[in-house]
Amino acid sequence: MTKQSRVLPMVEIFQTVEGEGLKAGFPTTFVRLYNCNLRCKWCDTTYSYAPHQPEFYATIEEIVEQVVQLENPSICLTGGEPLMHGDKSAALIQALAEQPVIEEIHIETNGAIDLTPFCALRATNTDVREKVRFIMDVKLRSSGEKEAMVWENFPLLSGQDEIKFVIGDEREFKEAVEVIESYYEQGQLLFSPVWEQLAPAALVEMILASPYKRAKLSLQTHKYIWHPEQKGV
């Protein structure tokens, strides 16, 4: 891969504390790549895809250099959809995993990208295998993108991965249960309420009434710390 072919469209690179999932609260460097193959109705990062333009372009080496300078052991690779750039996305993942300062990389993917090549990379590369986790966001009916899901991704996930369901109401929680019963094999289950649509307390009641006693409530804590629309946090 030539230097020019290793250029990626970017939105932002910044450090903050992780707001969601198993790493919530830990200092984390966010690497937000540009563009997405979905248009979810409740998306809160619409600035990361067309018709908006990339904020800048950077080579994989330039991205890694900025990340290493921040010295955070945890990295969140996000978007948009960070895996839609194919071989470039894979090359970035490998380059980040090779850095000694980086201990853990969690990749937020929307469930509508085939994870086969990225799971193959994890299986064959020691650094990637030791450091990379996928957080697959399963789209349900309220997103408007359920039909785009690649259900074959489920058996590719490992126990260290996370599977997130964004829930809008009780009917959608039942829909998530149907998906789990049909496709789930392993990985940490996360349930997250649609911001300002479903009260967290109501979602807690649903979780407690379900058979999923090892599931985790996942709140977007960054929206409680800062203004919900603030970028770079």
Write the topology of this structure.
Blueprint: E1 7-17, E2 27-33, E3 56-59, H1 60-70, E4 74-78, H2 87-97, E5 104-109, H3 116-124, H4 126-131, E6 132-138, E7 162-167, H5 170-183, E8 188-193, H6 200-209, E9 216-217, H7 222-225
Parallel strand pairs: 2-4, 4-5, 5-6, 6-7, 7-8, 8-9
Antiparallel strand pairs: 1-2, 1-3
Short description:
The protein is α/β, with parallel strands linked by helices and 233 residues long. The protein is 28% helix and 23% strand.
Structure characterization notes:
There is one protein chain. The radius of gyration is 17 Å and the shape is globular. Helix 1 (about 60-70) packs parallel to helix 2. It starts with 6 loop residues before the first strand and ends in an 8-residue tail after the last helix. The longest helix is centred in the last third of the chain and has 14 residues, at about 170-185. The protein has seven helices and nine strands. With about 230 residues, it is of the alpha/beta class. The protein has helices spanning about 60-70, 85-95, 115-125, 125-130, 170-185, 200-210, 220-225; strands at about 5-15, 25-35, 55-60, 75-80, 105-110, 130-140, 160-165, 190-195, 215. The model has no long low-confidence stretch (mean pLDDT about 95).
